[in-house]
């Protein structure tokens, strides 16, 4: 496995590789969720690139950029064991050189849910993903369904800007108790970790109600809130959403594919999750 940090060197190397090329963008602190993306990319492409970059522009002023988990040596060993061809690990000065002043501004899709709670977050996400696409030039890029709104924003960007890349969604990977794998799970205390599976139970309950014939969205939202409220360790609920799967516009009735999502806080740790209906 090659490891490169330079945009120019990476782009030059990729001109000579066998297509198609699969890209897995990550912020490191790799877990089985990331490796599921890598394995899918490995199955579908003769050349696989994984980027590791903790993107400062998607963190707000009070968020966890400084403490976000980092272990590049461990990450690279995991990627090499999975047969990755190239690890692209630029530093902030390579991605955002002095004088950088051009941004990708997502529209209404990025203003809801996470975008409402974390202003500017998706501008940072869209910009860095666009830059990764330009440097690496992938034929396919792989993202996890756990970050459902991020996935929707990137798909919209690719469509609107005529980017020549197929966006591949990979189902959320969960621990045995249902908790979605996330690098931020490492922040949880033992007590919080025991409580955290309530998030998936709450979403699953809404899914069960919908499968049983309940299509009223507010009833589904109420069910999620009630299950979350039953867990004393939950310190706050940022939102509970039942939204159209593509636009993420809130629904009154679920008569088409929808995403049920939530963001909750356990102590200082904020976790998101979602399930798809239909």
Automatic annotation (TrEMBL):
<comment type="similarity">
    <text>Belongs to the pantothenate synthetase family.</text>
</comment>
<dbReference type="GO" id="GO:0015940">
    <property type="term" value="P:pantothenate biosynthetic process"/>
</dbReference>
<keyword id="KW-0963">Cytoplasm</keyword>
<protein>
    <recommendedName>
        <fullName>Pantoate--beta-alanine ligase</fullName>
        <ecNumber>6.3.2.1</ecNumber>
    </recommendedName>
</protein>
<keyword id="KW-0436">Ligase</keyword>
<keyword id="KW-0067">ATP-binding</keyword>
<dbReference type="InterPro" id="IPR004821">
    <property type="entry name" value="Cyt_trans-like"/>
</dbReference>
<keyword id="KW-0547">Nucleotide-binding</keyword>
<dbReference type="InterPro" id="IPR003721">
    <property type="entry name" value="Pantoate_ligase"/>
</dbReference>
<keyword id="KW-0566">Pantothenate biosynthesis</keyword>
<dbReference type="GO" id="GO:0005524">
    <property type="term" value="F:ATP binding"/>
</dbReference>
<comment type="function">
    <text>Catalyzes the condensation of pantoate with beta-alanine in an ATP-dependent reaction via a pantoyl-adenylate intermediate.</text>
</comment>
<dbReference type="GO" id="GO:0004592">
    <property type="term" value="F:pantoate-beta-alanine ligase activity"/>
</dbReference>
<comment type="pathway">
    <text>Cofactor biosynthesis; (R)-pantothenate biosynthesis; (R)-pantothenate from (R)-pantoate and beta-alanine: step 1/1.</text>
</comment>
<dbReference type="InterPro" id="IPR014729">
    <property type="entry name" value="Rossmann-like_a/b/a_fold"/>
</dbReference>
<dbReference type="Pfam" id="PF02569">
    <property type="entry name" value="Pantoate_ligase"/>
</dbReference>
<dbReference type="GO" id="GO:0005829">
    <property type="term" value="C:cytosol"/>
</dbReference>
<dbReference type="InterPro" id="IPR042176">
    <property type="entry name" value="Pantoate_ligase_C"/>
</dbReference>
